[in-house]
Amino acid sequence: MQELEVRPGRVTLKWAWKMALIMILITIALFYTKVDAKSFLNYVVYIPFIFGLMMAIKEHKEKDLEGFISFRRAFTTGFRYASIISFIMGVFMYIYLRFINPQVFEQSLVEAENIMLDQGKSDDQIEMALSMARSWGVFMAAISASIGYTLFGGFLSLIGAAIFKNARPIYVEVERDEL
């Protein structure tokens, strides 16, 4: 019964803010150290995301639920964490691509233009596509990042729930000292 009374909101919010801050700092550090956008080092930002998700489930299980957690509750905790961090990172990605590092977005437009030229698109088609991308591209990139973190978090929540589930026993046997 206690599992229904205690909600994971406090734990998920705490870990999401902590890990989002770390992820933002890593992203900015990678920008200032001029790491290439296609480098594998950019995936380092997922380490705090994964760590925070697992720690949110673990803390909720141990501190709020006395060491017991159902698969459903563990998944819900992880998914809430992922949803919160997805929103935070989506907002950050918009700010990052619009103001901090707009060169990344411009580079992607150049690559898209080259692909369209290779495909034999006309100049009018290319110009129309690029103008639409310039007006909506950063916003759509932020939305895509947010959706991507949510989906990845859902997948990791399934894994975390499988790892941390420990259902409360229905019956508890009490040992008796018989004389």
UniProtKB/TrEMBL annotation:
The chain crosses the membrane at residues 15-33, 39-57, 78-97, 138-164. Keywords: Membrane, Transmembrane, Transmembrane helix. The keyword Transmembrane helix applies. It comes from Pseudopedobacter saltans (strain ATCC 51119 / DSM 12145 / JCM 21818 / CCUG 39354 / LMG 10337 / NBRC 100064 / NCIMB 13643) (Pedobacter saltans). The keyword Isomerase does not apply. This is DUF4199 domain-containing protein. Pfam families: DUF4199 (PF13858).
